[in-house]
Specification:
The protein contains 8 helices and 7 strands. The chain has 317 residues and is α+β, with helices and mostly antiparallel strands. Helix 5 packs across helix 8.
Amino acid sequence: MQIDAPFVVDATELREKRDGKYIQLAISDRTGKGTCKVWGTSTQSVEEIEEIYRGIQVGEVYQISGYAKVYNGTCEVNVNDSIFDLSNPLSRSGLDPELFVHTPVDGEEIRRGLYRMLDEIENPEISSLVVDALSSTPEFFEVPAAKRRHHAYTGGLAEHTLETVEMALALAGSVKRTDMDTDVLLAGALLHDIGKASCFRRQGFSFVALPEYTLVCRAPGVHPRRSYSARRGRPPPALRRGRPGAIQPPPPYPDGSSRPLRRGQAPDSGSLGGPLRRQRERDPPGCLRRRRWPCAGRGAAGVADAADGLSVLKGSL
C-alpha cells in the first residue's frame, strides 16, 4: 500500500545493513505511532545516507512517501526514492498541532482521577507534601512515561501513575494486616515516578529524553535499573563486587548466608529454614506472613513492604 502523508519524527537511528546503512525512524500522528525504514536509492553512498540522517530533526513534521507492508507482525513504511523529502521538514506555520500529537488518553480526566486519589489521603501533612510536589512539577501531566516501553505518548506518565495508584489501593485491600498506612501507600504511588517529569524535553511536536533518563543507577544504595543486563550481560563496573567504591550487596541473612535455601534443600541447624517452617505450621490457614528481608516481596506482599518503607516519610513529617 502506498503512503504519502505528513508525520512527526519522534526518533532517529542509523543502522547497519549488509551492503551499507539505512535510517530507521519512529513516526507518529494523531492516529498512532509507527516505524519507517529509509533505505534510499541503489546509487546512494553510505556518506550520503549519513548526511541525510544527521539533518533529520526530531519533533518536526516530514512528508513520508513510500510503501507500507507487514514485517514480523508489524506494519512499517519503507522509503526509497523519496528519501530526499527528509532533507527539509515542513513549515510549522501551516500545520494544525492537533493532527500530529498522539495521545490516546483524556488529559483532564487523568488529572481529575489523580486528584480524586489525592483526596483519599487523610493526613493533612502527607496530603500537603504530595500537592506541593505535583503543583511544582507541571510537566508531570504532559510528558510520556518512557521512550518506547510503555505509555510512550503525551500524558503517558500521568496515566501510568493513576494506574499504579489504583492497583496499589486494590492490592492493599487484599493484604491481611491491620497496620497498613494507606496514606503513605497512596503518597508513594502518586510520587513514585515524578522524577521522570524532569527527564524529557518538548521538542517540536514530540518529546526527547534527556541524559538523566538513561542513568543506570541513581545513587549508592538504590537498586540499579535492570536495563544493563539485557544489553551487556553483566553489571557496569560501579556495581561489580570487589571493585573500589562498588555498591555493596544486600545484607546477609541472620545466619550469615547470602541467599535463601533452594527448593528441596534441607536446612542445617543454623539456618532459618526450621524456624520459618515451624512458624508456618503455627499460622492459621490463609495467613499471609512474609520474610521481611533482605529485600521486599512481590505482589500484594510487596505493597505491604512498600508501606513499611514509606513509613520513614511519615515519621519525618
